[in-house]
Each structure stands twice: as structure tokens, then as C-alpha cells.
């Protein structure tokens, strides 16, 4: 099987046969073999080396978010269809025995669970915004995070996962500085990915806001050129996959979290996210299932 033909089933089979991905029985949830992880880590390291001169503050968060945060950022208004909630058992001894009996009898038992205070993180940047609250230093701030994120979009496409990793950079500061940073990173991201032999292009994009009102929001986002994506053919030539996204939120987060510039004006935020599994799959699609056979110019960047 040649990784380079556009046949979703064949590509998926090749990924499994070559030990890159391991089926779990859940749609959009795969185990990753060591080669897959080597590629993913190699790419993430290349990104962080490329961005090192910017001196981003490095933060790490658990892949859960306070339910109150999900509410505050408007996630349930905009993307309820993608949300993932954590529930647990908080009942009595008697109810615990009932629960256990239901499980063993093959009956439904989920209604005996109650929502906890947390949800699964849907975007790696969300926990970062509250850390900016207050007056920013002159010139604003830059943070980088990597995290597992959850989205309820089960699919058989190897490029559409329910749980995946995102490397994000988050910039906060004056509107001009934030937009300039976003524009510069769009060029930098394209150059980085082209340098790895990926046939990428950028385009304006919109988020999958829920429902009819959501269509209007998506149209506004396109109109104002708030979101860009870097696209690469992975499972289809006609419908290339977004492997990196750039979002200019204007004052969406800074108004909610009270983030102001040194001169007290309302700050703007922007973020960019590399979908690490998608970049890994794009590299495999472009160069084949075995990285030992990849061009030396690509290998030397991923594993210097
Ligand atoms: P798509 O249009 O394909 O659904 P998106 O616009 O929802 O992508 P973002 O919300 O901007 O993507 O997420 C940032 C990055 O995370 C994307 O550029 C992509 O690389 C990756 N990504 C998004 N959704 C998935 C998914 N379901 N599985 C794997 N990677 C994903
Ligand atoms: Zn983000
Ligand atoms: Mg999406």
C-alpha cells in the first residue's frame, strides 16, 4: 500500500499495518505506535525550536477545564455539539449497590451519575486567558502550551479525532501588535510546513458555530478575516485538511477576563494551533509509512 494515493480506507489500513495507529474500537480514538509518536514529537520540537527566539512563556495544564470557564468563554452558546462533560457518582451506599446491580444486569446506569465541576478541554488555549487578567506589561505577552483536547465529533477519518494534541501559541497585547504577530506566524507556519515537503496553502476559515444563528456568526468571522487555516491534502485532494489554525479573537476573551494593556486600553488576543496528529498524518501521506525512507532534508529537521 502506497501512502500517497487518496483512498481513506487504504490509508487507514496502511497506518494500522505499519504500526503507526492502533484501533481501540472507538471512532476517532486511536492508540499511537512509537513511530507515530517519534514523528509527532519531532515536529513539535521543530516548532518550539523555530519559535524559541520569541521567548514565549511555557505553561502546561491538565486536559480538564472548570465548568464555569466553559460557560464564561461561551462554549455552550457556540459549540454545544462538540462539548465533553465529566460525570461521576456522588450517591449513597444504597445507590452505589443499585448502580452496580444495573451495570451487571446490562441496564442503563448513566442517569445515576452527576456532573462534576469539570469538562474536557476543547482547545488548548482556554486555560491561558485567565492568567492574563489585569494590566499587561508593556508589549503584551506570549504563552505556549501543548495539551490533549476533546471534541465530540466521532468519525472514521483518521484525521478527525475525538481526542488529539494541539501545540498553541497565544499572543495578547495591542490590536496592531496582535494582528501583526498573527500575520507573521501565518507566513512562518507556511514556510515551516513547506520546508518539510508538505503541499500546503492558507485560506480564510470559520468555526462550526452551532445552528442557524451560528451560520451568521461563521459568515461574520469569514467577512472580518478572523480565522485562517493552513490546509494540506491528507485524505482527499479536493478537500484538504486544516493542519494549523490562526484565530484573532479581538476582545472576546479580554473583555470576559478583564485583560488590559499597560495604557489601560482593552487588549486583543490571538492564538495559533498546530494539530499535531494531523501534521503527523500529513507527513506520512507526503513521504510514506516508514520515516527511514523519508528525504534526508526532512529527517534532519525532525530529528537533528
Ligand atoms: P476542522 O475545520 O477540520 O474541524 P477546526 O477549524 O475545528 O478544524 P480548530 O478548532 O481551529 O480546527 O483547531 C485547531 C487545530 O486542531 C486544527 O488546525 C487542526 O489541525 C486540529 N484539529 C481540529 N479538529 C480536529 C480533529 N477532530 N481531529 C484532529 N485534529 C483536529
Ligand atoms: Zn486557541
Ligand atoms: Mg472543527
UniProtKB/TrEMBL annotation:
Q: Identify the residues that the record assigns to the Aminoacyl-transfer RNA synthetases class-II family profile domain, covering every copy.
A: 149-304
* Keywords assigned: Ligase
Q: Which GO terms describe its molecular function?
A: ligase activity
Q: Respond yes or no to whether keyword Ligase is given for this record.
A: yes
The entry's protein name is Amino acid--[acyl-carrier-protein] ligase
Tell me the lineage of the source organism.
Bacteria, Pseudomonadati, Pseudomonadota, Betaproteobacteria, Burkholderiales
Q: Which PROSITE patterns match?
A: AA_TRNA_LIGASE_II
Please name the CDD domains in this protein's record: Gly_His_Pro_Ser_Thr_tRS_core
EC numbers, comma separated: 6.2.1.n2
The lineage's top-level taxon is Bacteria
Amino acid at each position: 500500500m502506497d501512502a500517497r494515493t487518496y483512498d481513506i480506507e487504504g490509508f487507514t489500513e496502511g497506518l494500522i499495518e505499519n504500526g503507526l495507529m492502533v484501533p481501540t474500537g472507538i471512532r476517532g480514538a486511536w492508540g499511537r505506535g512509537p513511530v507515530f509518536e517519534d514523528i509527532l514529537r519531532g515536529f513539535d520540537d521543530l516548532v518550539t525550536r523555530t519559535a524559541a527566539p520569541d521567548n514565549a512563556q511555557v505553561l502546561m495544564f491538565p486536559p480538564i477545564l472548570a465548568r464555569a470557564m466553559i460557560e464564561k468563554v461561551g462554549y455552550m452558546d457556540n459549540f454545544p455539539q462538540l462539548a465533553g462533560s465529566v460525570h461521576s457518582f456522588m450517591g449513597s451506599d444504597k445507590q452505589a449497590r443499585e448502580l452496580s446491580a444495573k451495570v451487571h444486569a446490562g441496564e442503563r446506569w448513566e442517569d445515576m451519575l452527576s456532573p462534576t465541576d469539570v469538562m474536557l478541554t476543547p482547545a488548548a488555549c482556554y486555560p491561558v486567558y485567565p492568567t492574563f487578567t489585569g494590566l499587561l506589561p508593556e508589549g503584551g505577552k506570549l504563552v505556549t502550551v501543548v495539551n490533549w483536547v476533546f471534541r465530540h465529533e466521532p468519525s472514521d477519518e483518521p484525521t478527525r479525532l475525538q481526542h488529539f494534541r494541539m501545540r498553541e501559541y497565544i499572543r495578547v497585547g495591542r490590536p496592531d501588535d496582535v494582528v501583526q504577530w498573527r500575520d507573521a506566524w501565518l507566513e512562518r507556519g507556511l514556510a515551516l510546513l513547506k520546508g518539510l515537503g508538505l503541499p500546503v496553502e492558507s485560506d480564510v476559515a470559520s468555526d462550526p458555530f452551532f445552528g442557524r444563528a451560528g451560520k451568521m456568526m461563521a459568515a461574520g468571522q469569514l467577512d472580518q478575516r478572523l480565522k485562517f487555516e493552513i490546509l494540506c491534502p491528507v485524505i482527499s485532494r479536493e478537500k484538504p485538511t486544516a493542519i494549523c489554525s490562526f484565530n484573532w479573537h479581538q476582545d472576546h476573551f479580554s473583555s470576559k477576563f478583564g485583560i488590559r494593556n499597560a495604557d489601560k486600553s482593552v487588549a486583543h488576543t490571538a492564538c495559533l494551533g498546530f494539530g499535531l496528529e494531523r501534521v503527523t498524518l500529513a507527513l506520512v501521506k507526503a513521504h510514506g509509512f516508514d520515516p527511514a525512507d523519508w528525504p534526508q532534508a526532512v529527517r534532519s529537521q525532525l530529528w537533528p
